[in-house]
Amino acid sequence: MQQTFSWRKCSLWLFVISGLFACTEKGHPDAPVPDTIRVGTDATSNLIVLDRPDAAGTSSQREIMLPEFERYVHVAADSNHFRWIGASNRMFPWVGKNDLQSIFSEKDPVPPRIPHPNRRALTTILELSNGHYLTLLPLAGENSVSWLEVTDDGKLLLDYGSLGTEAVPSDSQVPLLSWYESENVYESIAKAWEIALTSDKFKTAGSLRDQKQYPEPLAYLGWCTWEQYHKNIDEATLVGAIDKIDNSGIPVRWFLIDDGHQDDDGGFLKSFDPNPEKFPNGWQPIVSRKREDGIKWMGIWHGFLSHWNGVHIDHRMPELAPFLTPNPQREKGLLPKDDMASSVAFYDYLVTRIQDQGFDFMKTDNVSRSTIEYYGLPNAASAQRENVLALEQACFEHGIGLMNCSAQNTIDLLNATNSATMRTSPDYQKHNLPTSKSQILQSVFNVVWLGQSLWPDHDMFHSSDEEVGAAMSITKAMSGGPIYLSDDPADFNPAVINTLCYEDGRLIRPEAPGVPLPESIFSDALYETDHVYKTISPLKNKACAIAAYNLSVTAEAPLNGKIVPKDYTYASAMVQPFDGFWEVPEEGLVVYDWNKQTGQKLTDAGMDFKMDGFGCELFLLCPISQQWAVIGRPDKYLAPATVEIMDMEEDRVTLSFTEIGPVVLYSGQGRPSSPEMEFSSIGNNFYKGIPNSGLQGAGTITITRTDI
């Protein structure tokens, strides 16, 4: 029978066969869901939606009959049951073989951050025996949420419910699943999301990443209080941190006040004012420190339902009283009522308060777990949806940027209307190599699905963390998402930070989020004993960056890596709208090893390398045209993104710099020269140019060559 908040024991078999499926993009949209549905047929795109929920007394479970497959990724949080919907930031790529039970075997050692998989998945990606790929994406509607679940005997079930005390209303449409099979894994994932977000068969408020406006502050370098100070913040601490940042020489442009500032009692919020003991003068001594050429923007952290446990019954916000209801699970707690008007009133009040206090953006946390707070009310799925939509609307209307944290569940993702970023991993933990390996893996892998609708937020990091600081800075540069420091400003490491941004703090960003290469999507990276883990980001001028990682917790010998021309073709995988994979240019490619600051032509045989122990290697692939290849500024990780090729001819190339600095070029014939730069050879027909003293800021430089 159709589930409320209980587990179903029966199963209804479903098969999608050619020409017979429920509510699909192609086929018979008015046909009822047949007794059996098999996914992975020749149909090009599928969306399964029930016109109404299953009748009372019948099962809502359906078994998905999969085609034969070789490997799969079960994208799920850890095994605590509530994590499937309250996943926080904990989604992990559980890689299995051709048996759905294979991921539940005990690992040695136990994974350092997410020890055991949840049986319920946010999405599942399969490599099929026919060489194709299949992505399954459960959906959420106005009054329901669906999920995938692997049973104890290895079956894959599709189910849905309200997660509340009442069944899904009998007149409600129930979106169940979108899925897509393709010859390439990126299209399989992207199309499953595109169908879910753009179909006219059911209402969803979410949108694809390219349809959203990226918040201006997040295009610059930031800093957050959390990992350095945790909840131990007050007026003196924050003013002191601002002083240190101003004197550091590091161009931090935004300042995020995380948890620890609240006027609360035991995790229940009393008001949206700051804690009067910690901040006796309110926010004015902090926000008054904003200035145009320094920290320009300030943000504030708030729990999604106001705080970790919601609003206190003895709160000091009488304006909100008509819109709150008792939390059935917390004696002292209140929640926004389960109706859209109450959600709108609650979040408009919250966003108006932080705007009036002088903040420019907010970070909302504990989003996915907030669904659980409504378990004792009639419909938790609809309540969560209403709250997500109301916060999105309030931030949009008031011009307040929104950073989503702990928001990895289906309801949140499919209703992220305007917000452009979401955390991809658990919190960074300073000076903790094992958990950092897991955090990096989760950060880069989760882009393949989350990155369809949002830019990935890889969390803050300490530039002074000697074990992982440099590797994490490369990872964050490749992401295209926000980059923010967390170490004591007195400990900032300029060598790590300055590679990420210009002198004004503007980040050097890729054209789309970095994503694992196909060979790595199905890699069990923490237990890999042979191959490195590789990710790729597209850059300006049809260049790209490839980062290679050794994240293994078991490998005793070095891992093997190889860069080949075919890698280059996948650089466009996350570009929206997708216009096809890149082609290797007729004259070929060069590869530049950023760590070694050396380059070579990339032949069909590829370039081999090894990685002994944890680390990250960065390679830049640039197209050769008329015997030129432009690497860009070698002092920045994403060097090709620092220049625009304005004109290229056999004897000259004209480059536009966002900020003039050194440049590396490949010249297959002749030595480059310019009256504005001094060039020297660095080997293999690569040359480094140093600008003349006094050249700075934006500008255009023409470089010629002789002896051609």
From TrEMBL:
Q: Which residues form the signal peptide?
A: 1-22
Q: Which keywords describe this protein according to UniProt?
A: Carbohydrate metabolism, Signal
Per its record, how is this protein called by name? Answer: Uncharacterized protein
